[in-house]
Structure formats: C-alpha cells, structure tokens
C-alpha cells in the first residue's frame, strides 16, 4: 500500500506520515528532507541556492546518510529548500530515489508537496493535509521554542506564507492536492484527532478498493 501525504509547510504532514507508517508497519520517507539537504550542501559549497548547476551537483551527490542532521529541521533550512526545489533539474534528480522508496514490497508512506501528483500518482491513498496559516505558525513556534530557538510568531508566519507562495506558484510540480486526494483540515484537530481522521480516510479508501 502506497500512502501519499502532501500539504503546506507545518501542516502536520510529517507527524501524520510517521504515525500512519508506524500503525501499518510501513517505511516512511520525509521527502522535504531531501530538498533541505540539497540546499544545505549548496550553501556549504559557497554557492547560491538558486544556482542550477550547483544545486544539480548537490542533488546528484546527495549523501542520504546525512538526512538525520537536526539542523535540517530549522525554518531557515526550509526556506533555502524551497529555493532549490524550484529548479526542475533538482526535482528530476531526486525523483527516482523517491519512486524506488515507494516501490518497496509492501509499500511505503511518503510526505511532501508533489507525492500524490508527480512522485506517486498511482498511490493507493492520497491525503492533502491543511490547517490555517496562523495555526501552523503557532505549532511551529512551539516546536522552535522547545528546541531553544529564539524566534517570533510574526517571523514564523511570514516564513510559512513565503514558502507556501513559492511552493504553489512554481511551474514544475507545484504544491497542490491531487484530483483524487482526500482533504484533511487539522486546524481544529489535535495530533491524536488528526491521526484518527486519517486512519478513517485510509480504511475507507482501502475498503473501496477491496469492494
Ligand atoms: N494536529 C496537530 N495539532 C497540534 N500540533 C500538531 C498537529 N500536527 C502536527 N503538530 C505539530 O506541528 C508541528 C509541525 O508538524 P510537522 O513537522 O509534522 O509538519 P510538516 O507539515 O511535516 O512540516 P514541514 O512541511 O515544515 O516539514 C510539529 O511541532 C508537530 O508536533
Ligand atoms: N515533495 C517535496 C517536498 C519538499 N519540497 C520542498 O522542500 C521544502 C521543505 O520541505 P518540508 O516538507 O520539509 O517543509 C518545501 O518548502 C518545498 O519547497 C518539495 O518541493 N517537494
């Protein structure tokens, strides 16, 4: 079973993807980490993140062992990631890894922006997770403060809105729900309630396929 989870920044995709993967004992890939790591490597090599040649070289040479770097989780790393993610050659270079991950026997859960539309258009289940920008900023703020980062709500909200705009306006694989995705607005749902709602959607979808 392949489960595609997409949605805007800090909507809770990753949290849901990990919970769903654990529930169905499936491997899970946070595809945003790939773009974050490419951006980190471009900047570390002293190039601009928008430099297509440097970004393509970084994508081709990506060390997948380096994805657990906690620095990749910061808002600054997400902002840089959304710049390299606009480069079509970078997206193409990361595609086969994501598709191979999804093609594992038994399936997988992947979360990102274009999983249901481009990476796994044949996914068995597609969920597009949303929440209002203010709710997302509040969640991200709490997460950053817990990590000891010195950030403001206004700064995080601006970062989220900028990233949403970049991700949804790019020509190549823009962020948007697949035509056959189920929408899940978690603005008024805590993590547990969002998980329960997602499990309900998945069971309904699997039931429909089996019928
Ligand atoms: N339904 C929810 N209610 C409250 N907090 C939530 C909920 N879902 C996720 N969170 C919290 O919100 C923050 C963002 O969640 P998460 O990292 O899963 O989002 P994301 O969409 O994967 O983010 P990004 O796109 O930036 O990687 C985390 O601190 C997470 O614990
Ligand atoms: N499938 C994807 C996943 C991510 N991106 C880009 O990476 C940025 C960081 O992603 P997070 O999920 O970790 O927030 C994101 O803003 C996108 O620009 C992508 O394009 N496609």
Automatic annotation (TrEMBL):
<keyword id="KW-0963">Cytoplasm</keyword>
<keyword id="KW-0418">Kinase</keyword>
<dbReference type="GO" id="GO:0036431">
    <property type="term" value="F:dCMP kinase activity"/>
</dbReference>
<dbReference type="InterPro" id="IPR011994">
    <property type="entry name" value="Cytidylate_kinase_dom"/>
</dbReference>
<keyword id="KW-0808">Transferase</keyword>
<feature type="binding site">
    <location>
        <begin position="7"/>
        <end position="15"/>
    </location>
    <ligand>
        <name>ATP</name>
    </ligand>
</feature>
<keyword id="KW-0547">Nucleotide-binding</keyword>
<keyword id="KW-0067">ATP-binding</keyword>
<protein>
    <recommendedName>
        <fullName>Cytidylate kinase</fullName>
        <ecNumber>2.7.4.25</ecNumber>
    </recommendedName>
</protein>
<dbReference type="Pfam" id="PF02224">
    <property type="entry name" value="Cytidylate_kin"/>
</dbReference>
<dbReference type="GO" id="GO:0005737">
    <property type="term" value="C:cytoplasm"/>
</dbReference>
<feature type="domain" description="Cytidylate kinase">
    <location>
        <begin position="3"/>
        <end position="203"/>
    </location>
</feature>
<dbReference type="InterPro" id="IPR003136">
    <property type="entry name" value="Cytidylate_kin"/>
</dbReference>
<comment type="similarity">
    <text>Belongs to the cytidylate kinase family. Type 1 subfamily.</text>
</comment>
<dbReference type="GO" id="GO:0036430">
    <property type="term" value="F:CMP kinase activity"/>
</dbReference>
<dbReference type="InterPro" id="IPR027417">
    <property type="entry name" value="P-loop_NTPase"/>
</dbReference>
<dbReference type="GO" id="GO:0005524">
    <property type="term" value="F:ATP binding"/>
</dbReference>
<dbReference type="GO" id="GO:0006220">
    <property type="term" value="P:pyrimidine nucleotide metabolic process"/>
</dbReference>
């Amino acid at each position: 079973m392949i489960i595609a989870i997409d949605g805007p920044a800090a909507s809770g995709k990753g949290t849901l993807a990990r919970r769903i993967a654990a529930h169905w004992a499936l491997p899970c890939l946070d595809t945003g980490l790939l773009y974050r790591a490419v951006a980190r490597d471009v900047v570390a090599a002293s190039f601009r993140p928008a430099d297509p040649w440097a970004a393509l070289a970084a994508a081709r040479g990506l060390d997948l062992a380096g994805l657990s770097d906690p620095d990749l989780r910061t808002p600054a790393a997400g902002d840089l990631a959304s710049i390299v993610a606009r480069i079509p050659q970078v997206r193409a270079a990361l595609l086969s890894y994501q598709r191979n991950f999804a093609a594992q026997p038994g399936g997988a859960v992947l979360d990102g922006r274009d999983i249901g539309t481009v990476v796994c258009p044949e996914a068995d289940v597609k969920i597009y997770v949303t929440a209002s920008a203010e709710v997302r900023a509040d969640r991200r703020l709490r997460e950053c403060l817990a990590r000891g980062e010195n950030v403001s709500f206004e700064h995080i909200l601006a970062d989220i809105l900028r990233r949403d705009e970049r991700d949804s306006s790019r020509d190549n694989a823009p962020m948007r729900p697949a035509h056959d995705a189920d929408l899940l607005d978690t603005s008024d749902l805590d993590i547990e309630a969002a998980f329960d709602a997602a499990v309900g959607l998945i069971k309904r979808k699997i039931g429909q396929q089996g019928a």
